[in-house]
Structure formats: structure tokens, C-alpha cells
Amino acid sequence: MNIKVKHTVLMICYNQERYIEVALDSLLCETIKPYEIIIGDDASSDGTREILDNYKKKYPDIINLVLNEKNMGIFANLNNLVKKASGDMIHFLAGDDWYKPHFLENTNKYINEKQLDLNTEKFIFLPNDVVHSSDGSERVRKNDPKIIGQYSPLGIVLRDLVYWRHVCLSRALFEKYPPFPEDMHNIGYWADRVQHIMLAQHIEKQYIVDFVGPVYREGIGVSSKASRYDLDRSYCAALREIFSLCESGELKLNRVDYGYLKFLIITSELKLQCNCFDYLKCVRLGLRQILINKFDFRPILNVLFIIPRRLLSGSFVGTIWRRYN
């Protein structure tokens, strides 16, 4: 049976006149075009809206413009778009990124080969992605299909074992897509980690496909301009929020994933305020995590990575010096 897929692409943008045409052309110049492209422009003050208006005139049946009169922020803007999606395969694409050729075509082929039911099966598509550097060079990031059987979908997201950028969701899974709470701006850059975790608990199947989809433009987004400390602080806040969701019963983690979450919280707090004794505690917990996670060495490496950064800053040495003098 030939499955006809209706692709919805949700795109948020703000002051991206330099990049928005590349993003739209990557979707509209393909043999298989999206069923709809819903674009939320967050009150751009450059020429972005004029460009969007021109594309709307060319593709009135595909492009749906949502033009915010005032800046709502990333999370509120995205929440607004999610309500409008009507396709049965939903994609997310930033206005400064784009898709590699034949991505939707390859997606359709895979769906038909596997005879996937988009309206009843809660699944996520995880293609390879590309990081595009400012010098024009590109590197492909491949997802490893072997990890599917090792951890739950929640555990995979928690451990950063897949690249989730521009995930593609079946309609059935998209119906479970959690909106960003109004206070997510308090978490900041890593707020989407909370949302990814909440979505992951509904995933029934994960399909890691060996073809390239999205291209991420490195060094352009808001988070790329943030300081390391602000990113670490946001990551720590996201982990604490995930922990509170577990405590309230809104999120259910198995014993292994729950232990790993607590380990991550301790290590993230250590990054913010280095203490040699807490560090030794983390090393002990990290060694235990290696055993629990079937000799997965990533947890302990994550901790050991703290050493060179803190040694360079002098905080680690200073802590030891103050303790013994």
C-alpha cells in the first residue's frame, strides 16, 4: 500500500533575513514538497517579513504565516505554531538552518518500506544531521542504531546519545507533544531538554535512519553566543526541573535512569562551583554508573572533563589550597 505522507514543517524565525531563503528553498525546491510550512515570525525588525511575504505569494497553498505583533520569545512562539499543525509527519526547522536534498523523499520511502502507520504508531525519526561551520566546512553527525536496544527512549535523551535537532514526529506522537510552560524562560537555553524528556516518555518506536536530513548552522543561534557558565547554569536548572517532575509523579524514570539523573545533577552543580571533595564523590558515583550502565564509560568521562577546565580557572587548586591551609 502506498502511504501518502503529509509533511508539516514548523519554523520559527527572528531577524533572519540572511538565512531564511536558504531554509525555505531547501523545502520548496524539492520534488516532494511539504503539505504545509507554518512560519512564526517573532516580530522581526529586519527584512525577514518582506521575504516571507514574497514566498507566501509564490506558495499560497503551502506557506502559512503567523506574524507576531510583539516579540513572544522562542518558547511561546513555538507553542503557538504547534497548535496549527495538521499534517501527519511533523518536522521542526529553525529559520537559519536547512534540509539536505531528498530528505522528505527519503523519509517517504522509509515510511512506505516499513508500512508505518502515522496516526496510530507513536514514533520518532532520527536521521543523521550536519553541522555547518562559519568557514563553510561541514561534518556529519551519525546516530548509532545500536543504542536503541540499550536504553529506554528517556534514557537515550538523558544521556545525549542521539542528535535530536529537527526531530520528525508521527502524528500519533505529536498529539502527545508537551507545550513549554510559561516559566521555561527561567531555565533558559536548556529548557528544551525538559520538553524533550517529557515527550520521550510517550515514544514507542525510534527509527534511526542512515540518511542526512537537517543542517545546523553553527555559531548563529542564541545559545552559541552564551558564556559557558550561563550554559552550565541553564543545564543544571533543566536537570533540577526534570528531577522535580519525577518527584511530583509527572515523569516516571526507571531505577537506572533515575540514578543517572541524580548523578548528572551532582556533576552539573560541580561545574558551577568546583569543590575537590564533591569531585571525589562524583568520581565514585561515576565508577558506579559504569557498572550500572553496562560498562558505558561516558558518565565518568563527563566528570573527568571538569578537571582541565577548573584547573585552568584555578578554582579547583584554590579549593584544595584553602582546605589544607
Keywords:
disordered C terminus, alpha/beta, 2 domains, 325 residues, Spore Coat Polysaccharide Biosynthesis Protein SpsA, Chain A, nine-stranded mixed beta sheet
Could you provide a short overview of the structure?
The chain is an alpha/beta fold and 325 residues long. 44% of the residues lie in helices and 17% in strands. The chain is built from 13 helices and nine strands.
Description:
This protein has 325 residues and is of the alpha/beta class. It has 2 domains: 7-224, Spore Coat Polysaccharide Biosynthesis Protein SpsA, Chain A; 228-324, no CATH class. It has 13 helices and 9 strands. Strands 1, 2, 3, 4, 5, 6, 7, 8 and 9 form a 9-stranded mixed beta sheet that branches. It is globular and about 65 Å long. 36% of the residues are buried. The model is unreliable at 316-325 (pLDDT under 50).
Topology (SSEs and partners):
Elements: E1 7-13, H1 20-28, E2 36-41, H2 48-58, E3 63-67, H3 74-82, E4 89-94, E5 98-99, H4 103-114, E6 123-132, E7 138-141, H5 153-158, E8 168-170, H6 171-174, H7 191-200, E9 205-217, H8 228-248, H9 255-272, H10 276-292, H11 298-304, H12 306-313, H13 315-324
Parallel strand pairs: 1-2, 1-4, 2-3, 6-9
Antiparallel strand pairs: 4-8, 5-9, 6-7, 6-8
Helix pairs in contact: 7-8, 8-9, 9-10, 10-11
Second rung of CATH, namely the architecture of the largest domain: Alpha-Beta Complex
Tell me the number of helical segments per DSSP (H or I, 4 or more residues long): 13
Main β-sheet: number of strands, strand sense, barrel status? 9 strands, mixed
The portion of residues forming beta strands comes to 15-25%
CATH class of the largest domain: Alpha Beta
The name of the CATH superfamily of the largest domain reads: Spore Coat Polysaccharide Biosynthesis Protein SpsA, Chain A
**Average pLDDT taken over every residue:** 86
Distance between the amino and carboxyl termini = 76 Å
From the 3D structure, determine the CATH topology of the largest domain: Spore Coat Polysaccharide Biosynthesis Protein SpsA, Chain A
Radius of gyration: 21 Å
